[in-house]
Amino acid sequence: MKAEIKLYCNLETKQGFPVVLYLREFNFRKRLNIGWYFKKEEWNFETETPLPAAADYEFVYPLLMNYRHQIKQLQFQQVVNADEYIHIIQPKKRITKDFYQFANGLIADLKARGKYANAQIYENVTGQLKKLKPQLNFEDINYNTLRDFKNHKLEGGAKNSTVHNYLRTLRAIYNEGVLIGLTEDLQPFKNVFKGITVRKNRTKKKYLSIDSIKTLENCEGLPPGQQFTLDLFLLQFYFGGQDFIDVYHLRTDQLKNNRVYFERKKIGERGYEFDLSIIDKAQQLLNKYKPEDGFVFPGRKDFKGFENIRRRYQKNLTVIQKKTGIKVQPKNENLGIKVARYTFANRAKNLHIEEDIIRELMGHERNEIDTIYKDKYPQKIRDAAHLQIVTT
User: Fold this and answer.
1) Are 129 and 149 in contact (CB under 8 A)?
2) CB burial of residue 130 (10 Å; 0-12, 13-18, 19+)
3) Residues 101-148: pLDDT tens digits?
4) How far apart are CA 367 and CA 347, in angstroms?
5) Thinking of the domain 210-390, which architecture would CATH place it in?
6) Phi/psi of residue 62, nearest 5 degrees
7) Confidence class for position 204, pLDDT limits 50, 70, 90
8) C-alpha span between 254 and 291 (Å, rounded)
């Protein structure tokens, strides 16, 4: 059974165009109105989802991702009974009270938006809770349930900080359910954090000296996999300390007129597009690779594929550190994925670069006051600061 949820643009009503479920199997055809309506300018036709500016986005988007997750499960099971698909979106089924089903919809949403790390955190935490509570509806989430989960993890040897993060993640999922009306906010998390309060300490960021960057630039004779890792790490540094996920997923259409354009995946919808000049050393590294399917670098870009690439990347960084003998400041720790970003920021501050310029080069999210009252620095000034930071 082929099942799709799409905006049906052949029928316009006063409310807009209806969102429908298409079902197709051999000679069987069925189109079912889900009950949502959007205008064309409110709809993303590539992802078949409403745009964030749409009035009903906060309500519809999580439910839509949840429906699609359930549809994929039926397709995986090779279910061909149309009623099974229709039941997913029937009014009595429209709003699921199953906490895990709703969480799976959020996880699918995060993966669709490229927020793989957050998706993995959600999967891990709900999986931990499911071991203790295999069945869980929203109305079952109360102080006793959460206290039992907290004590279960602590007795199993988990650290306070770990359990604290588990509960914070569960609270985020619960709050999403409250937001779209799945449950009233009964404040089940009130007092549950007692005894596991985590003191917030400002951790010292790990970075490399400029001499260590020179050592990496001059490193030769590495196997192909390690050389690929080194190239990406240096590009992270050359590209304003961009996150590994953003460099690895770099597309050819982001490279224009000797500039590279980024929107940080980590920030999501709060991010904005910013651009950097492509210095000669960065261009030389880019020239080594032949684009595939619109991406600059080879390798799988799906969730599982990216996780494997990320693990190999970290492993190779450790090997490269041992081979070159470079030391990660300030405590000579392991060379990690974030070190390139912290190195760029640290060098910029040591050169006394204006803080707002650093923010623009690195793509930091800005608060609303910044956005309203501050203009971007001229390209010439940004490029000069950028070149000063990455010149070795």
Assistant:
1) yes
2) middle
3) 888 888 877 776 667 778 889 999 999 999 999 999 998 999 999 999
4) 24
5) Orthogonal Bundle (1.10)
6) -60, -40
7) low
8) 12
Nearest to 64 by CA among 26, 38, 27: 38
Domain residue ranges of the chain, discontinuous segments joined by +:
2-94, 115-179, 210-390
Give the position of tokens 């490229």.
Answer: 114
Position 373 scores a pLDDT of 42
Nearest-5° Cα angle at 282, 118 to 323: 75
Neighbours of 321 (CB within 10 A): 21
Residue 166, classified by CB atoms within 10 Å of its CB into exposed (0-12), middle (13-18) or buried (19+), is buried
Three-state SS string over the chain comes to: CEEEEEECCCCCECCEEEEEEEEEECCEEEEEEEEEEECHHHEECCCCEECCCCCCHHHHHHHHHHHHHHHHHHHHCCCCCHHHHHHHHCHHHHCCCEHHHHHHHHHHHHHHCCCHHHHHHHHHHHHHHHHHCCCCEHHHCCHHHHHHHHHHHHHCCCCHHHHHHHHHHHHHHHHHHHHCCCCCCCCCCCCCCCCCCCCCCCCCCCECCHHHHHHHHCCCCCCHHHHHHHHHHHHHHHCCCCCHHHHHCCEHHHEECCEEEECCCCCHHHCCCEEEECCHHHHHHHCCCCCECCECCCCCCCHHHHHHHHHHHHHHHHHHHHHHCCCEECCCECCCCCHHHHHHHHHHHHCCCCHHHHHHHHCCCCCHHHHHHCCCCCHHHHHHHHHHHHCC
pTM beyond 0.70, yes or no: no
| Model confidence at 203: pLDDT above 50 | yes
CA-CA distance, 102 to 170, in Å (whole number)?
12
- In the block, which residue shows the tokens 């007692």? 194
